[in-house]
Specification:
Length: about 240
């Protein structure tokens, strides 16, 4: 089993944009999501994107006039993010998420932690540190928005196999194994080569985060919290100072 960083660096990072349907499709979905959350055009507000990936949210935010500080550690994604940030008000930071507040020069109006990023953290204590930093880093009225999958209920049998994306020359399938506090995520990539299909496999741990616990941690950090579910079945937490 690889660490989260190694898994993305050596296995998933190079196909992550493809997994999301490509850059344009990913940004279009993100823009629709932002608008549905009431995030509109601005000229002076600061947004923080934790786990920015290839920039699917950072780019639309910058195009709406936000100043964005985008955090990413995966090399392939960091290179894509840097490329897309060129000419935009996006400051790309290669840093662990838990230390994001050290890179801010003023309170943030919006902090995003989307797409299961919270479950990539090493443990509950790191999540607690992050929620505390979020509470301390938001401007009055500022919002924190997080999405993540609720793995507290273990899937069983064939439900543990998830078809993520497939096309003529590449297929990504995910398999889940559960232990007490984490779920082991096995990403199976089949690629069609001149010699036939080749299989590449790597696995990494995700946290089985209880949405209620995350909400209580944010409330303890001084935020008003609402929880819900996205159209794709992910937990969504909206918190405001």
């Amino acid at each position: 089993m690889a660490s989260v960083a190694d898994h993305y660096e050596r296995h998933l990072g190079e196909i992550y944009t493809w997994m999301q349907g490509g850059f344009e499709a990913g940004c279009a979905r993100a823009l629709a999501e932002l608008r549905a959350l009431g995030i509109e055009r601005t000229e002076s507000h600061l947004a923080v994107d934790l786990g920015a990936g290839f920039g699917s949210h950072a780019v639309p935010l910058a195009d709406l006039g936000w100043t964005v500080v985008a955090f990413e550690r995966c090399g392939p994604l960091l290179r894509e993010l840097t490329q897309h940030a060129a000419g935009r008000a996006i400051n790309v930071i290669d840093s662990d998420l838990s230390g994001f507040s050290r890179h801010l020069t003023r309170p943030a109006d919006l902090i995003l932690c989307l797409g299961d990023t919270l479950t990539h953290l090493p443990g509950a204590s790191t999540v607690r540190e992050l929620t505390s930093a979020v509470g301390a880093s938001l401007a009055p009225g500022g919002r924190f928005i997080a999405t993540f999958r609720d793995y507290t209920r273990a899937l069983e049998g064939s439900a543990r196999f998830i078809a993520v994306r497939s096309e003529a020359t590449q297929i990504l399938t995910c398999f889940l194994e559960y232990d007490e506090s984490k779920v082991q995520v096995h990403d199976l990539i089949h690629r069609l080569t001149g010699e036939g299909w080749r299989l590449s496999v790597s696995s990494y741990p995700k946290l089985r985060l209880d949405p209620g616990w995350v909400a209580r941690e944010l409330e303890g950090a001084g935020l008003h919290v609402q929880t819900g579910t996205t159209a794709g079945g992910m937990t969504r937490i909206l918190a405001q100072r």
